[in-house]
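Predict the structure of DNA replication and repair protein RecF.
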Amino acid sequence: MRLERLRIRGLRCLAEADIELGEGIHAFVGANGAGKTSVLEAAFLLSHGRSFRAGAKDVLLQRGASALSVFGEIRHEDGRIGRVGLGREGARWEARLDGRTASLGEVVSECAVVCFEPGSHALIAGAAEERRRYLDWGVFHVEHEFLLAWRRYQRALKQRNSLLRTGGAVAPELFQSWEAELSQAGERIHAMRLRYLDLLSPHLERTIGGLLPELGAIQLRYRRGWPEERGLGEVLADQRDRDLARGHTTQGVHRADWSISFEQAPLREHLSRGQEKLTALGCLLAQAALFAGQKGEWPIVCLDDLASELDLAHQTAVVGQLTGVGAQVLVTGTELPAPLQGLSAHVFHVEQGKVAAPAIITA
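Done. Here is the predicted structure for DNA replication and repair protein RecF.
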């Protein structure tokens, strides 16, 4: 798939940008703070419903603006064009698909974007929440029932946590009904995650092994969020008194995590920051390759500040791999990254929140 048009209004320093895109590589070049990362952020918003940058949603809104919107036209491999949009005025978000009001899930299912950016190492070194997001985004795109199960689980989790925080005596049967729902939805989510990881594993071995061959074979570990030998419903019942003391549910798929270890670096602490970045990049490329295998088209790939995040050899390897499979790539830098010099590319200059018409560079 590829974005053919990206229209942005009121996002950070981008007051208004209307960008036409084509096949292949698109480089957004400009000084720090010019707004080039916000272009990638807009594409990511359409795919994930959130930014890849840390911070509150309020900071997305341009200073002094009352609303923001992002619109994209996406051409799929079969020629179909999907028109997706997200808009916000005040605290209210609205999603649109092909001119009609839609759910966020419908918009996200239409647009797939993976992004490697300066914070991506958190996928390896950060909190478990970031790894669950990565995993569940992938599961969402290959398991049609995932979103329903996830919504059921979140609703039951919210209700059980509300009961846990009441502070008074609660009839056991009230807990039992929500725990049964949590157990059923949680076991389904766990099974879907396991299937996805089985599909992802060979892609991880190929992409990470190619980026970090010196670390040897990789091992993927997954912890489901409650003891392996017991059912979730049984665990929730047994944990009820402890959860009452804590005021929240401490076991379940919302506590799951996964990790990657290497033959020559069995602990995460053995990795340098550069190796963490390359491992995260391998995970993102593996997810993109699996998506392509399942859907018959590559997702859009964003590479933010490529030259400062990777050395020249790895920049060249990544660009070569992505151009070889025909993926649409959006990349940023203070100048045109060296591996792109000599390749065909669309180069956009970004200055003070304005995106100039592209210069076309041909190989």
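The longest helix spans residues 172-211.
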